[in-house]
Design goal:
Layout lengths: L5 E6 L2 E6 L1 E3 L1 H15 L7 E6 L3 E4 L3 H14 L2 E7 L4 H10 L8 E5 L2 H10 L14
Parallel strand pairs: 2-4, 3-5, 4-6, 6-7
Antiparallel strand pairs: 1-2
Length: 138
């Protein structure tokens, strides 16, 4: 779908995502559904996630409970590390922080201004990917 507001794929034990545009509840529900489908083979093992957010333009308040539920599901099913990649943006950070916990006993989230640092952190945590870029997928 060329007009999709997100692209998701899996490499080894890492789910990669690029998101863009403004999101409504339907987009968030579609993302959550596709994310869970891609994550299912990883359930029962530790896994990681990296997401490129520079082109994301926030979402309506109705997306927040959808993403909060997805985050809870992910952490409960083995997500251990999440890297968010975007240039500093206070409003974006505010909405993301409302939806995604920073850390818990079994989970840690970090924000990076560039994807190289994010991939390096995941590699240091034991989660390698074939690609080291989120930019080639358009």
């Amino acid at each position: 779908m060329p007009t999709s507001k997100f692209i998701l794929w899996r490499e080894q034990r890492v789910i990669l995502a690029k998101v863009k545009g403004g999101w409504n509840k339907f987009t968030a529900e579609d993302f959550a559904s596709q994310f869970k489908a891609i994550a299912m083979p990883l359930v029962g093992n530790d896994w990681a996630h990296i997401v490129y957010l520079d082109n994301w333009q926030l979402g309506v308040p109705e997306i927040e409970p959808v993403i909060q539920d997805l985050v809870s599901w992910c952490i409960g099913n083995g997500l251990r590390f999440a890297a968010q990649v975007y240039c500093p943006h206070m409003v974006k950070q505010y909405q993301l922080d409302r939806m995604i916990v920073d850390s818990s006993e079994y989970f840690e989230k970090r924000v990076y201004p560039n994807q190289q640092e994010a991939f390096q952190w995941l590699t240091e945590c034991g989660f390698n990917t074939q690609s080291q870029t989120l930019l080639y997928t358009g």
